[in-house]
């Protein structure tokens, strides 16, 4: 990681609260919070509402800490990519040293407090998740292999397992299925983005699949991972976290997702960039709703189950 492409003169201004908040990647944090909450609600057993609130808060802080450390290490890449050039560090609003300090402090605080508020296993699980995202993905995989988003996607898939562990102190088939739902969704989601943002990754030297293997190979990979994702997503309906509501949502969404992946796979290279852009953009937008709606259905099943309306 280097700050060579960041203008040091810009750093003279004072950063606002919003700049420090942006370091925590609030959009990504929102997905972390939501999926962790679903894992907590869907888990068998219960915890006191205040403990549940604290657990989700500390998981959110841990997710934000990961974001700050990611921005610290990737400041050089962010500075040359159009999509990330306005982030606090490349924009000169926050120094890399401040981001590092904030990330480390919040990492330690969140893991210790989660362990004290719930159980040691969930605290250690959060610590492992932060380590995996920052060290395994950001520092190692992202700049080394086109499979970066495949393996590194595990970090974003751990939160529902942590939420489940808050209640149970353990891992189960259901929590693994929630993990796999996000893990298998991540590659098609990011590769679709990379298809119409390839210029950014080329410029930054990030070995995304579109850069190393080209667009046709990327489209084939999107289809392959989508085909593998469908049985995982639909199969979860027949476990304790599923039910008729989830099954309906899963069948509809996965039919649309698979159709979108086939459209990308079959697209005509001779077609205009504008037409291809529309297909890829549509799939990417659908992927943004895909995970949220699956987990919303899991939560609905869990909340309605006590009234005899959820589950099988």
Automatic annotation (TrEMBL):
Transmembrane segments: 28-44, 50-73, 123-141, 148-167, 179-201, 222-239, 245-262, 282-304
Subunit field text: Interacts with CtaA.
Protein name: Protoheme IX farnesyltransferase
GO molecular function per UniProt: protoheme IX farnesyltransferase activity
Entry's family note: Belongs to the UbiA prenyltransferase family. Protoheme IX farnesyltransferase subfamily.
Annotated keywords: Cell membrane, Heme biosynthesis, Membrane, Transferase, Transmembrane, Transmembrane helix
UniProt EC number: 2.5.1.141
Name of encoding gene: ctaB
Topology with respect to the bilayer: Multi-pass membrane protein
Originating species: Pseudooceanicola albus
NCBIfam families for this protein: cyoE_ctaB, PRK04375.1-2
